[in-house]
Each structure stands twice: as C-alpha cells, then as structure tokens.
Amino acid sequence: MLNETRVALRGNVATEPVLKVTQQGTTVCSFRLAVTARRYSSSDSKVVDAETSWYTVTCWRSLAENVVGSLAKGQGVVVHGRLRVRDFVHDGQPRTSADVTAEALGHDLTWGTTSFTPNRRSRADEVRDDTDRSEADELATAVSVGELDGEDLGGEGGGLLAGPGYDGGLDPARPLVDVGSEPF
User: Fold this and answer.
1) Compositional bias (Basic and acidic residues) spans (predicted)?
2) Dist. CA 184–CA 144, nearest whole Å
3) Which alpha helices (H) appear in 71-163, and where do they start and end?
4) Bridge partners of residue 160, in order along the sequence
5) Spatial separation of the C-alpha atoms in residues 4 and 173, rounded to whole Å
6) Which of 72, 111, 179, 180 could form an S-S bond across to 76 if both were Cys, CB 3.0 to 4.6 Å?
7) Residue ranges of domains in the chain, CATH in brackets
8) Statement: the pTM of the whole predicted model exceeds 0.70
9) Are 29 and 54 in contact (CB under 8 A)?
C-alpha cells in the first residue's frame, strides 16, 4: 500500500515471543520491543541513554515460527515492517499502542554472531493473504498490557488459541511461553 508507514527499528526483545494459532490455523507471534536512543551529553562528556520507546511487534506465518525458534528476551534485533498507532481502552483507561507488523526481522550483529538454518518449505507455503485485523489487534493488545495467560483471547470459542496446543515442528527443547503480567 502506498499510504502505509514503514519503519526499520533497532532495539532489544523485551518479552519472550509468544506464539498463537488463529482459528483459521494461521500462526502469529508477538513480543515487545524496547528501542532506546543514545545521545552525546556535552555536560557529561559521554554518550547517555535517552528515553525508551516501546513497540508491540507482530509476525505472521513462517516468520512467526522462526521468531519463536530463534529469539529470546534481551537479544538485539532489527525489525522492518509496517507501523500502526492505535488507541484502545483497557480497564476503563484510554491507551495508545505503537504496533509493528514485521515483514523482516533478524539479530543485530553489532552485539554478537548468529547462524542461519533455512526452512525446508516450498514457496507455495508462503502465500500471503489479508488476515483478520481484529485477531491481530487482540493479540497485540494482550501483549501490550501483559495479559497473556495461555487462555483463549477471544472469549467463547473465538479469537486466538493458546500456543501450547500447536505442534508446528518447533524445537521441543524451547517451550512456548506467555509474557505474564510483568510491567514493561
């Protein structure tokens, strides 16, 4: 789309990536990203951290599976995707969330090394279609406010299903985790 805001962000994974499966069987993963600018302080004669900006990053399909199998809390990453700022109400309080739908994501090699293992999939498995925005908003809101508890996020039989029931061939040594209720 021409009227989309595209961003490239460099920051740290602030919460463990959470994998869910929609009722249509589409995998989706979300996590919080902390982006802290660094500035030179002439009064201190050194580089200091500025304010931290927080983003909810959502990944779909094979990118979601790869993120859960590759990233952990605290790791430096570079995210490229579409930015959307949305308003919502949580516990009667109006809130704003900056959400990024990732199109590409990888480790920030400034801070370490990584290795790459390609997926064994056909290109036909990567067919992209428009996904129901309400499901994406539901997951992003749950991640933003730290309310994922492994329960169905959509109420009576609707919405996103909990990740532990998903068997997508991910590394069994790395459990699927929810972010809990830790503040960001």
Assistant:
1) 122-136
2) 8
3) 133-145
4) 22
5) 38
6) 111
7) 5-162 (2.40.50.140)
8) no
9) no
Give me 50's structure tokens: 């500025």
Nearest to 17 by CA among 67, 56, 53: 67
CB 37 within 8 A of CB 50: yes
DSSP assignment string, 29-67 = EEEEEEEEEEEEETTTTEEEEEEEEEEEEEEEHHHHHHH
Sequence length of the chain is: 184
Q: Give the number of other Cβ atoms within 10 Å of residue 166's Cβ.
A: 17
Number of Cβ atoms within 10 Å of the Cβ of 135: 20
Which mean pLDDT values do the consecutive 10-residue runs of the chain (184 residues) have? 87 96 93 93 88 95 94 96 94 94 95 86 47 61 59 39 40 40 37
Provide the residue type at 22 as one letter: T
* Residue 75 parent element (H or E): none
Cβ of 181: how many Cβ atoms within 10 Å? 10
Helix (H) or strand (E) holding 143: helix 133-145
